[in-house]
């Protein structure tokens, strides 16, 4: 069973999943492996980590496509080369077309850095601090056509501390992301 992970930047969640798949021997235990890492940015730092692990990578620069649909079609073609049982969005910063979401219905997940349904969208940590939240966190969810609104698969909570900057809170949440995302992916792929 192949997992394809989509990234746009540092890919720390992708790295956590790759490391968990190796440490947890997913290939032997579940017949599962991370088959490819695909990015919409050729300068995504996570691509280098994937290459270090000899995981096939691809980068499709969305700016070279003349429509969202054209980009998504090329992205689907690249992803489908690996016949994925699961497509994992990990810091993938693109809004996906309904056609893309439909194509991967039931096998598409994402991680969002807030305790959904609070703070869908961007700048979640700054918004939580400005709202005076005492707690923040992250949510792993299935992806549906409505942004950040699919079935929740897991969440983790962290305290918002006095004087927290968005960066400090982001780091605290990210550490939890790296804990819950690999566990959800393994649960889904082992099923
Ligand atoms: C993280 O905050 C994640 O929740 C969001 O993208 C950010 C960077 O993730 N989806 P990564 O380090 O690229 O995995």
Characteristic terms for this protein:
7 helices; seven-stranded mixed β-sheet; globular; binds 5-O-phosphono-beta-D-ribofuranosylamine; single chain; 191 residues; GART; alpha/beta; 40% helix
General description of the model:
It is an enzyme of class 2 (transferase). Belongs to the GART family. By secondary structure, the chain is α/β, with parallel strands linked by helices. The protein is 40% helix and 23% strand. It contains seven helices and seven strands. The protein has helices spanning 12-23, 26-30, 45-52, 68-80, 98-103, 124-130, 166-190; strands at residues 2-7, 33-39, 57-59, 84-89, 108-112, 135-142, 152-159. It has a seven-stranded mixed beta sheet, sandwiched between helices. It is globular. The model has no long low-confidence stretch (mean pLDDT 96). The structure holds 5-O-phosphono-beta-D-ribofuranosylamine. 5-O-phosphono-beta-D-ribofuranosylamine (GRF) is lined by residues 7, 9-14, 90-91, 111, 113, 138, 174, 177.
Q: Mean pLDDT across all residues, rounded?
A: 96
- Read across the widest sheet, the strand sequence of neighbours is 3-2-1-4-5-6-7
- What is the terminal separation in angstroms? 11 Å
> Quaternary state, please?
single chain
Structural class: alpha/beta
Content of β-strand: 15-25%
Number of E-type strands = 7
Q: In angstroms, what is the radius of gyration?
A: 16 Å
The share of residues in helices is 25-40%
Spans of at least 5 consecutive residues with low confidence: none
- The ordered string of helix (H) and strand (E) elements is EHHEHEHEHEHEEH
Large-scale geometry: globular
Q: Biggest sheet, in brief?
A: 7 strands, mixed
Number of helices, where a helix is a run of at least 4 consecutive DSSP H or I residues = 7
Q: List bound small molecules.
A: 5-O-phosphono-beta-D-ribofuranosylamine
Pfam families: Formyl_trans_N (PF00551)
Keywords: Purine biosynthesis, Transferase
Function: Catalyzes the transfer of a formyl group from 10-formyltetrahydrofolate to 5-phospho-ribosyl-glycinamide (GAR), producing 5-phospho-ribosyl-N-formylglycinamide (FGAR) and tetrahydrofolate.
Family: Belongs to the GART family.
């Amino acid at each position: 069973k192949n997992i394809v992970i989509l990234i746009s930047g540092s890919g720390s969640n992708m790295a956590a999943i790759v490391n968990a798949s190796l440490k947890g021997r997913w290939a032997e235990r579940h017949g599962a492996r991370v088959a490819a890492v695909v990015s919409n940015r050729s300068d995504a730092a996570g691509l280098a980590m994937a290459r270090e692990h000899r995981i096939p990578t691809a980068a499709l620069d969305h700016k070279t496509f003349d429509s969202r649909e054209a980009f998504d079609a090329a992205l689907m073609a690249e992803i489908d080369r690996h016949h994925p049982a699961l497509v994992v969005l990990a810091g993938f910063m693109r809004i996906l077309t309904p056609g893309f979401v439909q194509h991967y219905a039931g096998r598409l997940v994402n991680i969002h850095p807030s305790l959904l349904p609070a703070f869908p969208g961007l700048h979640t940590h700054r918004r939580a601090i400005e709202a005076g939240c005492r707690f923040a966190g992250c949510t792993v969810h299935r992806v549906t056509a409505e942004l950040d609104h699919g079935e929740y698969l897991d969440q983790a909570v962290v305290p918002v501390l006095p004087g927290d900057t968005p960066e400090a809170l982001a780091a605290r949440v990210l550490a939890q992301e790296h804990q819950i995302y690999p566990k959800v992916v393994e649960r889904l792929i082992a099923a």
